[in-house]
Design a protein that fits this description.
Blueprint: H1 40-44, H2 49-71, H3 77-88, H4 105-109, H5 119-131, H6 135-147, H7 155-167, H8 171-183, H9 191-203, H10 207-217, H11 229-241, H12 245-257, H13 265-279, H14 282-293, H15 304-316, H16 320-332, H17 340-352, H18 356-366, H19 376-388, H20 393-401, H21 412-424, H22 428-440, H23 448-460, H24 464-476, H25 486-498, H26 502-514, H27 522-534, H28 538-549, H29 558-570, H30 574-586, H31 594-606, H32 610-622, H33 630-642, H34 647-658, H35 666-678, H36 682-694, H37 702-716
């Protein structure tokens, strides 16, 4: 039996009451020992202050432990009430020996398996512990809202709890406050102040602060404040020298991927393996799995079998991320024989405990036609349950389900309604989607000014995603709604880059190279893109390759473009393989090589890229670069369409008209194009118009041709279906 559960801090915290949304965890009330929520035993006796504080804080620690059981789905209301009754019975805090009677709830009542998570009950206990003077309870509350695993992620609330803990002298609270200030999470961004707070802790020998500083300077890290890999690696090494295993894992990762140092894959992996072997740290196992499956953007040869093995070991240790990744790979047949039902069961097991990440992953699986027939009702139920637990990302997923999943009939009004719910819950992605759809008049009345105002409000608050979206809108323009404005687009991308966005830096660099919206500066722009690409960013490598391949740098350099695409492919970008296939299929400065093109498309398809599978099917049907197999090729193209890519039906129609797969079949072409048109492909409507205009495979019919052409015009012009044009 474990006893003690002592805390060293002794502090009374205070804050302002805040009403809780229905079904969500409560937030910080006014705190003080006179609260009626404090157990009777604490208020009854008045022993010496020292013994009283010791008893109260020990009792608070047990309340925290009981809250953890609720949070993690390891207790029931009945079992927890038995524990609370025991603690309330400790009515003699003046007796020092009484402190040893305060034992861990898991020892007192045991651990209940398969109990649902109850974040509301957990939060109530954490609040009571905070009311007793526990800054650790405030940290638990902050973590609850920051992680968003069983309650809605809410950075503002998390910051308030961390700030209370920091003011109570909690070092971890100070660290989190510094981090959120530096990144502008839940509070106005103040990078200088945040870095100063973290640096003060690091200078005092806090290894977690050193790792955090490394994360803030590491390229590609979430919330990066500056891209300085050398500085990041130096901080990680200092943390590792203090014996901090997280620092050692980071050093190993950067050594293996060649960030801030000469790449040495074997040495880096050995560092990570050493930590795993010595500590059995599941975080190290998950890192190794990520490295081999490309989910982290490393540069190690993809080995999904190894990745699955590492995730499985993490899962066997009870690590939830390991269970999640193992379930996903099992269900999708990545790195192991596919077992859809077994993988789905693993995700369902987590989801049934109220794990919102698992609920969302389950929804993703159930709505992915490339894995199994879409189970729309079950997917919606999973997302809705995550939303009911307060996870607004699930509402965004539901909106995407009805607006961005080609395997499901588009329903813009329904999608917009979900995005509005997410927006009202404070979700930034939801707010952006609402702004975008309002500009386009999709699922709602078009109002360009209002939509832009909503996105600009987010951009003004420093949201780089909003800046990038606005930059993209002004770069492309929207026919009849928003004229292209390269100068404004470049300004948004530049501001995004200044805010630490890798994507903003890449887009601004591209525009410099091409002289779009700014004076042409090939050298300077290319350097911006290369800096990010050299740090191991797949998107930047894709951009660099495109600039080299299309001649934007002054000449076409297909050879260097292929090398850049190869690096991107090694980082887990199968679409890079498709681009290389295109280069070899079309020819140019590199001679056309259909066999090579086919092989690259095949590799992309094996890595999960639907365009690669589509090209492979088309070439198989035509006998281009491979032995002709018309039925197999057509079926592969059809399967890509079923999986949600409507362009596959355009390709299918083209094949039926080409004569390359047998006699021209106008009826089959019309059916394919109609299918594509129903899923929003305006080019399919144009092809149908051409078909009836020319009478190819069908009787010529000018009236039908004109009807299809008009439909194509409407489909390509958002204003045509968005009500009266507003100027």
């Amino acid at each position: 039996m474990r006893i003690g559960w002592l805390l060293v801090a002794s502090v009374v915290v205070s804050g302002s009451a805040e009403a809780s949304p229905a079904g969500q965890a409560p937030t910080l009330p006014a705190l003080g020992f006179a609260s009626p929520d404090v157990p009777r035993a604490i208020q009854a006796a008045k022993p010496s202050e020292e013994s009283r504080d010791g008893f109260v804080l020990a009792l608070a620690a047990s309340y925290i432990a009981l809250g953890d059981l609720y949070r993690d789905g390891k207790t029931t209301a009945a079992a927890a009430e038995a524990a609370l009754a025991y603690y309330r019975g400790l009515d003699n805090p003046g007796r020092p020996a009484a402190i040893y009677a305060v034992i861990s709830p898991s020892d007192l009542i045991g651990v209940v398996k398969d109990a649902p998570a109850d974040p509301f009950a957990a939060s109530k206990l954490y609040l009571q512990a905070a009311n007793m003077g526990s800054s650790e309870a405030l940290m638990r509350l902050g973590d609850l809202y920051r992680e968003g695993r069983v309650v809605a992620a809410d950075a503002r609330r998390a910051y308030l709890f961390y700030d209370q803990a920091a003011k109570a002298g909690n070092a971890d609270g100070k660290l989190r406050v510094g981090e959120m200030l530096a990144r502008g999470q839940g509070v106005a961004r103040d990078t200088g102040k945040g870095l100063a707070m973290i640096a003060a802790l690091a200078d005092a020998g806090n290894p977690e602060a050193l790792v955090l500083l490394g994360d803030l300077y590491r390229p590609g890290a979430q919330g990066m404040v500056a891209m300085e890999p050398d500085k990041a690696l130096d901080y990680y090494r200092k943390a590792a020298s203090l014996g901090y295993d997280v620092g050692k894992l980071r050093v190993g990762e950067m050594t293996a991927t060649g960030q801030g140092t000469t790449q040495d894959v074997q040495a880096g992996l050995a560092m990570i393996e050493e930590v795993v072997a010595r500590t059995r740290n599941p975080a190290g196992l998950v890192l190794l799995g990520s490295l081999y499956s490309r989910t982290d953007g490393g540069v190690i040869a993809i080995d999904l079998g190894k990745a699955f093995g590492y995730f499985r070991r993490a899962a066997d240790s009870g690590d939830e991320t390991g269970i999640l990744r193992t379930g996903e790979m099992l269900a999708r047949g990545r790195g192991t024989a596919q077992s859809y039902q077994a993988g789905r069961a693993m995700l369902t097991g987590l989801a049934d405990h109220g794990d919102t990440f698992a609920l969302i992953a389950l929804g993703d699986l159930l709505s992915d036609a490339a894995v199994a027939p879409v189970d729309l009702a079950a997917a919606v139920t999973s997302y809705e349950k995550a939303a009911s637990l307060g996870h607004s990302d699930a509402l965004v997923r539901l909106g995407d389900l009805y607006s961005r999943n080609g395997a499901i009939a588009s329903d813009p009004p329904k999608a917009f309604a979900y995005y509005v719910r997410a927006s009202r819950a404070g979700n930034l992605a939801g707010k952006l989607r609402v702004g975008e759809m309002t500009v386009l008049g999709q699922g709602t009345d078009r109002n360009v000014a209002a939509g832009l105002a909503q996105m600009n409000a987010l951009a003004d608050e420093g949201d780089a995603n909003a800046m990038n979206l606005l930059g993209g809108l002004y770069q492309r323009g929207i026919g009849g709604l928003l004229p292209a404005n390269p100068v404004t687009a470049f300004d948004y991308f530049s501001k995004s880059a200044e805010a630490g966005s890798v994507m903003g830096a890449v887009r601004a660099g591209e525009m410099k190279v091409r002289g779009q919206g700014t004076s042409k500066d090939v050298v300077g722009g290319l350097q911006m893109v290369k800096t990010v690409a050299d740090a191991g960013n797949g998107e930047a490598l894709m951009s660099l390759a495109a600039l080299l391949a299309d001649g934007s740098t002054g000449k076409v350099d297909a050879t260097e473009a292929v090398l850049a695409y190869e690096k991107a492919a090694a980082l887990g970008r199968p679409d890079a393989l498709v681009r290389i296939g295109d280069i070899y299929r079309l020819g140019g400065t590199i001679p056309a090589d259909p066999a090579k093109a086919f092989d690259y498309y095949r590799r992309a398809g094996m890595a999960g890229d639907e365009t690669g599978r589509l090209r492979q099917g088309e070439m198989t049907a035509r006998g281009e670069g491979t032995r002709q197999d018309i039925p197999a090729g057509l079926e592969l193209v059809r399967q890509v369409g079923i999986a949600g890519d409507p362009y596959a039906y355009v390709v299918l129609g083209d094949l039926h008209l080409s004569g390359a797969v047998g006699p021209v079949d106008g009826a089959a072409a019309v059916a394919a194009y109609e299918n594509a048109a129903r899923k929003g492909r305006a080019d399919a409507l144009l092809r149908l118009g051409d078909l009836y205009r020319d009478g190819k495979g069908v009787p010529a019919d000018g009236g039908k041709a004109a009807e299809y052409y008009l439909k194509a015009v409407d489909a390509e012009n958002p204003a045509a279906s968005a009500g009266d044009v507003q100027n």
